[in-house]
């Protein structure tokens, strides 16, 4: 059986071709070095060195074995470093699911901060609707999810990251398009472009409760899953909607975003499965907590003029 120590001794001796110098570099005396090299040759059954009293010369078999020994030990050292870095969360893969809204507020900054600090971690992104994200986390199909709190199962932990109000999105020619702020009650009776409650239950409840507070239930003309699609349909004049304030960043021609006179806050945070042992997880959560401590994402710039209608 070849001893790993023997290979390390032979690697150094093959580089110095001098027993005394090799022993000094290895921090051992010369006799143990000579014994280990002789034992290695007996195990292999071939001479690796032609010796005199102090120096040595590699035999043809010794030169070939030395080349392969260096390759083997270098690969082993890399494997050790990689394993240690992986255990520290400095390498590996992190599977991050996120709702579409997160791409308009917390996700870009959080991902940039984490990627800058952990360049050797592969972050695999998956955009999903909120109804599917909790299930993916619970099943182990994602390590983290940026989503609404809602009714998360007890197997998940949750960290609030960001909150923002709702805003009204109106067609550019709407009677309230020039208002500094929109009273929600003024939208009673308007056709709404909205989304099914099953798609994002927490967001749906915030929107519905906001309307109920002002004495009406939104009259849905169209329903679709994605907020971006809602804004596009509003821009086409198919109705009005209440959307998270981050959606102002779309700046879509034909759509006008206006703050509400009084709006509830909508929360977004990061969720993960309790007991997830991915070593990359603690590092990401540290960046998430740092972001939360600063108040989350920057607020979008308020639109002051209606966007020009699409030509």
Description:
- The chain is α/β, with parallel strands linked by helices and 311 residues long.
- The chain has three domains: 84 residues, Winged helix-like DNA-binding domain superfamily/Winged helix DNA-binding domain (Arc Repressor Mutant, subunit A), CATH 1.10.10; 96 residues, Periplasmic binding protein-like II (D-Maltodextrin-Binding Protein, domain 2), CATH 3.40.190.10; 103 residues, D-Maltodextrin-Binding Protein, domain 2.
- Helices cover 39% and strands 22% of the residues.
- The chain has nine helices and eleven strands.
- The strands form three sheets. Strands 3, 4, 5, 6, 9, 10 and 11 form a seven-stranded mixed beta sheet that branches.
- Strand 1 and strand 2 form a beta hairpin.
- The longest helix has 28 residues.
- It is rod-shaped, with a radius of gyration of 32 Å.
């Amino acid at each position: 059986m070849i001893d790993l120590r023997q290979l390390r001794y032979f690697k150094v001796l093959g580089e110095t071709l001098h027993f005394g110098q090799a022993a000094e570099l290895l921090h051992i005396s010369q006799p143990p070095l000579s014994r280990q090299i002789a034992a290695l040759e007996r195990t292999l059954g071939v001479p690796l060195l032609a010796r005199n009293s102090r120096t040595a010369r590699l035999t043809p078999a010794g030169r070939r074995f030395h080349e392969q020994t260096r390759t083997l030990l270098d690969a082993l050292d890399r494997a050790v470093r990689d394993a240690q870095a992986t255990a520290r969360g400095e390498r590996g893969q992190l599977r991050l699911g996120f709702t579409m809204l997160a791409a308009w507020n917390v996700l870009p900054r959080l991902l940039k901060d984490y990627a800058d600090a952990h360049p050797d971690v592969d972050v695999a992104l998956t955009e999903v609707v909120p109804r599917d994200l909790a299930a993916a986390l619970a099943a182990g199909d994602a390590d983290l999810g940026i989503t609404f709190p809602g009714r998360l199962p007890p197997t998940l932990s949750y960290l609030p990251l960001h909150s923002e109000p709702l805003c009204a999105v109106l067609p550019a020619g709407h009677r309230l398009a020039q208002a500094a702020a929109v009273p929600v009650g003024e939208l009673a009776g308007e056709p709404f472009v909205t989304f099914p409650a099953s798609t994002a239950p927490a967001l749906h409840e915030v929107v519905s409760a906001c309307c109920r507070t002002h004495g009406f239930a939104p009259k849905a003309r169209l329903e679709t899953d994605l907020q971006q699609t809602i804004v596009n349909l509003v821009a086409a004049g198919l109705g009005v909607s209440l959307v998270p304030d981050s959606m102002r960043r779309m700046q879509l021609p034909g759509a006008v975003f206006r703050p509400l006179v009084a709006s509830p806050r909508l929360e977004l945070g990061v969720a993960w499965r309790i007991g997830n042992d991915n070593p990359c997880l603690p590092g990401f959560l540290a960046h998430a907590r740092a972001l939360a401590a600063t108040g989350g994402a920057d607020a979008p710039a308020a639109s002051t003029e209606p966007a020009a209608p699409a030509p």
